[in-house]
Design brief:
With about 80 residues, this protein is of the alpha+beta class. It is built from 2 helices and 6 strands, in the order βββααβββ. The strands form 2 sheets. A 4-stranded antiparallel sheet has the order 1-4-5-6, with no helix packed on it. β4 and β5 form a beta hairpin. The mean pLDDT is about 95.
Length: about 80
């Protein structure tokens, strides 16, 4: 896993949504101010964004009744 700043062109599937969305559009729709946008972090695996830190997880990685392993990540 990698923690990095988001990049233009990044896409993810916000929790509760069916399709993917550009991170930039999500930040605008969430009314995140410019200074925060500039430092917004994303947690990624080798291919996908798992979490916009502090804002929203990716729906493809939500817990299900068949989930057997959980990784809890916290930032303070």
């Amino acid at each position: 896993m990698t923690l990095r700043n988001w990049k233009h062109g990044d896409r993810f599937q916000p929790f509760g949504m069916k399709g993917k969305k550009m991170v930039s559009d999500f930040l605008i729709d969430s009314k995140i101010d410019s200074p925060q946008k500039n430092i917004q972090k994303v947690l990624c695996d080798s291919q996908d964004i798992l979490w916009l830190v502090g804002l929203r997880t990716d729906d493809r990685f939500k817990l299900h009744s068949a989930t057997t392993k959980i990784l809890k990540v916290s930032f303070f």
